[in-house]
Amino acid sequence: MTAQDERPDSPRPSGAGPLLLGVRHHGPGSARAVRAALEAARPRVVLIEGPPEADTLIPLAADEDMRPPVALLAHAVDEPGRSAFWPLAEFSPEWVAIRWALEHGVPARFIDLPATHTLAWGREGTSTAEPEGPTSAAEEPAQQAQGETVPDTADERTGEGSGEATDENAGDDGPGPVADTVRVDPLAALAEAAGYDDPERWWEDVVEHRGTGGDAFAPFTALEEAMGALREGDVTGGPDRDSVREAYMRLQMRAAQKEFGDDEVAVVCGAWHVPALREKRTMAADRALLKGLPKVKADMTWVPWTHRRLARASGYGAGIDSPGWYGHLFGAPDRPVERWLTKVAGLLREEDRIVSSAHVIEAVRLAETLAAMRGRPLPGLTETTDAVRAVMCEGSDVPLSLVHDRLVVGDVLGEVPEAAPAVPLQRDLARLQRRLRLKPEALERELELDLRKENDAERSRLLHRLRLLGVAWGEPAVSRSSTGTFRETWRLRWEPELAVRVAEAGVWGTTVLAAATAKAEADAVSARSLADITALAEHCLLAELTDALPVVMRVLADRAALDADVAHLAQALPALVRSLRYGDVRATDTRALSEVAAGLAERIFVGLPPACAALDAEAAQEMRGHVDAVHGAVGLLGDAVGAVHGDLRVRWHSVLRVLSGRDTVPGVIRGRAVRLLLDDGELAQDEAARLMGLVLSPGTAPADAAAWIEGFVGGGSGGGMLLVHDERLLGLVDAWLTGVSGDAFTDVLPLLRRTFSAYEPGVRRTLGELVRRGPDRGSGVAVGGSGAPGFAADLDDDRADAVLPVVRLLLGLDDDRARIDDNDLAGVAG
């Protein structure tokens, strides 16, 4: 039986025209009021603000597998990245209207400007294009307050493409400052008129806390009058977005009135548009506004959405501050405050905080008391938050931030039925997710994979393939439990805009494997640098793209043969060597890869010494990083290369000896080469001390000596521990530093600070204790000899006395000695 068959006499007077239900999007109070008004009026058709191309998708809202929050996704067929979303939550008035129409057998239709125009409007080169989003920070609240269904595009955040974002102020010349202020935030103007300083509190008191009794149409009548007053004088002379959208909505409304009758039509739209829809304008004038609009071919479907993406903080123009709280208000059958605080208590208990039922009772009492003191009809989110902070969190905002993140905002992820339209790649991904038991979730979680297990290995391959396609569902993370190559840790989080990325990746193939293979081959051909190709080869091995790897390796070999830049070769080698490890864990044949890696290493050995000559400080630092990377890569190569290449480690150590002894090589590289040889056991400690003594001799420029020290013991490579355990080296550094002149000390100080600041706090503290004790006066420090034998256990009184004048000057203890010669300050070594 349809609604028309059982429809009672409508309380609305005859001839009143269409029922215009102006709402705030994503508001539970508006949603309840819409349902009550529809029940009272029982219209024969329901018109809803939204893209008309989605009319065929409306029946899916009744599917048992459809669980909001969801969103209508529109994307250009020839450019999937050009997309737009229309989010709907369970407490959205539009969703309630759709569900009511489906339950009562009443047609439901979308009447906003078609997505074919919406997606084309922001294209570059389109003469009628308006700005694609808020053009200033002051304009964004207009969308939030007026409740516009802003199609929130992923491209708005990345600066790519141009999805539609409804701009309430587009083309607004405004009658004056007052009108401009009203257009910025209508709810703020209404709240201020009512004596409220917070628009959200006013909305909660007037709408969200209002019951459904009494006249079902009164709230909409009052809101229409208020919006009409706010829009007075808002006459635009040109086709701005609002006027174009409203012209299309009026045409659709007239068509429905002609089909069903003037009094049989209900319209659910943003309250801002109601005065414009009520306005009498000719069809010719409305059609003139729509003439010549740009078009693109668009597809539409339902996609899952999240409460977090409904939040205003996500950048969504029509967002709300507390989607989780609004969802609770809409779903709670009774006693919403008590039920909410019970949820909060449950969450805090899960986090091992001591919260009892007595806490809940006291928090309810406090929230109700605060509401009464503040003159509010019921406790709102502000009162419950204050009560939770005082009673359950003991005044701390740390656990309160968890409540806000998990409950006030929430991580609810909607679901759409399999019958919803989708590109073939999306269907293949959904099939793999079910088979591998990888359910998309809005809450970020860590996934530990053991690659020795087939299911985990397949999960790893899927995640790597999606990353290669630009679908960043998972990001690799550092494993906490193991460092073995058979372990992988992923940080997973499904964001709604990933549906757009899947649609974009659909151009590469109909399955995840085929699309990733085609994308890898195309990326190899278009790669700009050798390092990009080696990184791509590593991704192909991780994703097990066996068909793409030969193409990538062929391009890699060709580029490596032509590239004579040692820096490029050094950047490319580490990724290749890392990839060789996957043959053990993933059963991947990496013989071709090992040959290319060995050839790359040979060319680096030949070209590195001349490439390190005559470098400036910045280039020397960069080359030092390349030396470290090649050293690690050669160590990993080990026995992976064939006998035809001999022992690569021996030849690499020969290259390091050449670098350590050439005066034309910058000090930071020479020092690093000595350190690497020492760590590999190719250089005795006595020899390392001799080389350091030579570099730190008076004949070496202080800046070059400081650079050598930075290369030898700098960075986070354990240089500090080397100085702690080999006090001869520390004695050499100490003796050299105390002998540097005042002017030279100022020049080398930044290098030394950079060197020693990278040490662990405990290492710095230990070195400070050793230096504080001072060297053994009986043994002396033989610079250029065998080095100091160690540091004494007693304090060096002479060195301590040398700093006393400076200390007295800083403390103001001796004004007569305030003038201290600069040479005396520089010569504190004594």
UniProtKB/TrEMBL annotation:
It holds the Pfam family DUF5682. Residues 137-148 have a biased composition (Low complexity). Residues 1-21, 124-181 are annotated as: Disordered. It comes from the Bacteria. Residues 1-10 have a biased composition (Basic and acidic residues). This is DUF5682 family protein.
